[in-house]
């Protein structure tokens, strides 16, 4: 080993926290690359910085010399007493073992499955912010969205997003300040949260193929289960790393759109450029400024000796602006090809969550374009400090699309909805409340048919469909019963926790995908809150004198809304599964005469069991209403095309639909907004007539006959089997 001086004079003045360089490090990085390619900083225990693209690539490709097994953040955010966070803070072969465990949760199929939920989160936040008045986009959109997506990813309530953000930010800020007491307290809070999550998932495991927490708890490495420390450390990585950088990238994206009308115009006109734009965005404003390694041996680089055991910052944000690697590196260039940036890292530790981050960014931009006519600055943006690169405050104006409202009202005279006030809220079971809605002036509400639902737009921007469950003869009120979803994405939890009598709500509809057809006999099958659309049906059938039976399934009676009223009728059988076990549906339905219509609503598992029990019945005997997508509904049918064209006959435009893009988004980007709400093919609000072409149906609303007829499509999820679809939109 050469005896090189380990002096720290060269680049000694490099301090990432000098006022300008902390928020806008471009100039400082350029100087480092040109003058001090191996620079030393005394702060935070001392570390060397590599700033040139080629050096960083070489270091990232050599995990033996540049180990990740020590802490990889600067300053260290895990704290002295905490275990390293696999797979980020492990070396081969352990790194590979952990990465293999986690890879499947970021695979394209899994990300595609999450897309409707991501889109709904984005649409809710963007719609609420798109008022035309100045809004602070970090507070209104970019801060919340990635944490809510992370919650969906981990199967935890979206309402925990804000808490996760606060805990993670406390860790960063305490580590940054070197405040060990606050750091320990912040760490303790985050680990207590993880412990509770792990305990909850041990008690109620979910599908390990789609739920990372259950997957980790059931996983084996070399035949042994993971230790509690290992599970917590992986979750800690996800909770800490899974949102902050995306918040920053999303902020930079909105800032770019607002400040660069030329780019906004071009992306709106050429949406296929959104994906390359994201790559360029991550290059120019690299949200993960750096990751650290520790040298396992003395290293000579650019006439300096870096001793074994030194902390090395791989400054991705600098590498991405290196003129030796990129022409005109400080310019955002939409046409930069190839774009070999290292914004998601490089080598074996390349960001595991990159596919999720890319999907989030793309969907957020698509939703911004779908909901707004234009995005413009409304004040001066502020840059966040170390370790972030991105805005901490971003005043913008999101001008809502006027055409969206026009198109909506053209399709549905009640597209904009009506204002209803909450006249009464009362519990009708554990975790189920009934809302009575009416107009302020007491006037009649639109009439409706049994099986119908309305879409309730909540004041915080979230809209959800709820079945009308009251009496149709009460013309001046509507009743809905809402069950609190333990994994609420912000709808039912808001209704339970925040709404009060007297609050005004926008309500759209009614709409009915579950109409009651005439028959001599009916069997109604409900599980849980799936009883709601059946209540008006039962009332109607009772009035007509037809024969009926109801089988109502629930875990415990206290959670079964309206059970007391229903059991007054001898036709009702309650199946309380905690007491009686699950009913044998095949047995229950065995004697049902062939002229009977069966109406079923409830959980996906329950409906799956009903469908299995009636699989041999003639088509049309079973009618189902789903509150969430049918499992497997998103699977492509035979002949499904990845890319195709949609002609919008009424609007006179033809839009390309690219792989992974929904028809509704492609239309939105072309300036034709088809009103949508759930974006997962369950609410039916985007239902559109098909004039020609063959749809590839992936919704959970249309019946088998409707699908076969091919006259309707739900463009939020469905696609095409022919190169062109013509829609009446
Ligand atoms: N959920 C209910 O609790 N009661 C209902 O009557 C009800 N009706 C629905 C009708 C339709 C057509 C659909 C698609 C869904 C219905 N849901 C109902 C589910 C809610 O819309 C929503 O998904 C649920 O409250 C969870 O939302 P959250 O995750 O935002 O809390």
UniProtKB/TrEMBL annotation:
PANTHER family: P450, PUTATIVE (EUROFUNG)-RELATED. GO terms for molecular function: 2 iron, 2 sulfur cluster binding; heme binding; iron ion binding; monooxygenase activity; oxidoreductase activity, acting on paired donors, with incorporation or reduction of molecular oxygen. Belongs to the cytochrome P450 family. Residues 81-90 have a biased composition (Pro residues). It holds the Pfam family Fer2. Gene3D superfamilies: 3.10.20.30, Cytochrome P450 (1.10.630.10), Nucleotide-binding domain of ferredoxin-NADP reductase (FNR) module (3.40.50.80), Translation factors (2.40.30.10). Residues 415-517 form the FAD-binding FR-type domain. It comes from Microbacterium lushaniae. This is Cytochrome P450. Keywords: Heme, Iron, Metal-binding, Monooxygenase, Oxidoreductase. Residues 644-729 form the 2Fe-2S ferredoxin-type domain. Residues 1-30, 67-95 are annotated as: Disordered. InterPro entries: 2Fe-2S_ferredoxin-like_sf (IPR036010), 2Fe-2S_ferredoxin-type (IPR001041), 2Fe2S_fd_BS (IPR006058), Beta-grasp_dom_sf (IPR012675), Cyt_P450 (IPR001128), Cyt_P450_B (IPR002397), Cyt_P450_CS (IPR017972), Cyt_P450_sf (IPR036396).
């Amino acid at each position: 080993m050469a005896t090189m001086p380990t002096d720290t004079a060269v680049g000694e003045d490099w301090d990432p926290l000098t006022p300008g360089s902390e928020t806008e490090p471009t100039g400082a990085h350029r100087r480092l690359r040109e003058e001090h390619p191996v620079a030393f900083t005394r702060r935070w225990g001392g570390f060397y910085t590599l700033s040139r693209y080629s050096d960083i690539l070489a270091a990232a490709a050599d995990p033996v010399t540049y180990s990740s097994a020590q802490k990889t953040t600067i300053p260290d955010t895990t704290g002295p007493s905490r275990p390293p966070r696999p797979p980020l803070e492990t070396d081969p072969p352990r790194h590979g073992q952990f990465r293999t465990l986690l890879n499947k949760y970021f695979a394209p199929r899994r990300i595609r499955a999450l897309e409707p939920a991501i889109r709904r989160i984005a649409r809710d936040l963007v719609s609420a912010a798109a008022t035309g008045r100045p809004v602070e986009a970090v507070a209104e959109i970019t801060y919340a969205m990635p944490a809510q997506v992370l919650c969906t990813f981990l199967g935890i309530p979206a309402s925990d997003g804000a808490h996760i953000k606060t805990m993670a930010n406390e860790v960063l800020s305490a580590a940054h300040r070197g405040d060990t007491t606050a750091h320990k307290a912040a760490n303790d809070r985050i680990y207590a949260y993880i412990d509770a999550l792990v305990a909850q998932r041990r008690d109620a495991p979910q599908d390990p193929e789609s739920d990372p927490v259950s997957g980790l708890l059931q996983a084996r490495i070399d035949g042994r289960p993971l230790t509690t420390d290992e599970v917590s450390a992986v979750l800690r990585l996800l909770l800490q790393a899974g949102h902050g950088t995306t918040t920053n990238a999303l902020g930079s994206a909105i800032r770019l759109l607002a400040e660069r009308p030329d780019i906004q115009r071009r992306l709106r006109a050429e949406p296929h450029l959104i994906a390359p734009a994201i790559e360029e965005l991550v290059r120019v404003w690299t949200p993960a400024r750096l990751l650290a390694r520790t040298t396992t041996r003395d290293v000579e680089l650019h006439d300096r000796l870096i001793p074994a055991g030194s902390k090395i910052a791989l400054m991705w944000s600098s590498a991405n602006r290196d003129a030796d690697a990129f022409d005109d590196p400080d310019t955002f260039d939409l046409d930069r090809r190839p774009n070999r940036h290292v914004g998601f890292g490089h080598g074996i530790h390349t960001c595991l969550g990159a596919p999720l981050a890319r999907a989030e960014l793309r969907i957020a931009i698509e939703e911004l374009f779908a909901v707004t006519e234009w995005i413009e600055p409304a004040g001066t943006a502020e840059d966040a400090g170390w370790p972030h690169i991105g805005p901490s405050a971003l005043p913008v104006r999101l001008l809502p699309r006027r055409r969206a409202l026009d198109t909506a009202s053209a399709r549905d005279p009640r597209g904009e909805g009506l204002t209803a006030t909450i006249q009464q809220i009362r519990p009708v079971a554990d975790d189920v409340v009934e809302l009575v809605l009416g107009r302020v002036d007491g006037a009649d509400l639109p009439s409706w048919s049994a099986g119908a639902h309305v879409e309730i737009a909540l004041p915080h921007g979230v809209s959800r469909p709820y079945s009308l469950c009251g009496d149709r003869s009460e013309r001046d009120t509507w009743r809905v019963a809402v069950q609190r979803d333990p994994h609420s994405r912000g709808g039912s939890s808001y209704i339970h926790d925040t709404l009060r009598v007297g609050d005004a709500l926008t309500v759209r509809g009614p709409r009915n995908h579950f109409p009651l057809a005439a028959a001599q006999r009916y069997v109604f099958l409900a599980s849980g809150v799936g009883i709601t659309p059946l209540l008006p049906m039962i009332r109607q059938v009772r009035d007509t004198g037809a024969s009926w039976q109801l089988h109502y399934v629930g875990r415990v009676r206290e959670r079964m809304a309206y059970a007391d009223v229903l059991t007054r009728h001898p036709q009702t059988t309650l199946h309380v599964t905690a007491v009686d076990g699950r009913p044998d549906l095949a047995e229950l339905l065995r004697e049902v005469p062939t002229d009977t219509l069966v109406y079923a609503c409830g959980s996906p598992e329950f409906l799956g069991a009903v469908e299995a029990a009636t699989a041999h019945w003639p088509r049309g005997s079973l009618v189902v209403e789903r509150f969430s997508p049918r499992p497997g509904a998103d699977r492509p049918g035979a002949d499904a095309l990845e890319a195709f064209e949609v002609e919008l006959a009424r609007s006179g435009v033809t839009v390309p639909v690219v792989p992974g893009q929904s028809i509704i988004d492609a239309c939105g980007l072309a300036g034709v907004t088809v009103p949508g709400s759930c974006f997962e093919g369950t609410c039916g609000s985007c239902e559109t007539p098909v004039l020609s072409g063959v749809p590839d149906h992936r919704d959970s609303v249309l019946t088998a006959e409707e699908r076969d007829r091919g006259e309707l499509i739900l463009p939020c999820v469905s696609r095409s089997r022919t190169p062109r679809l013509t829609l009446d939109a």
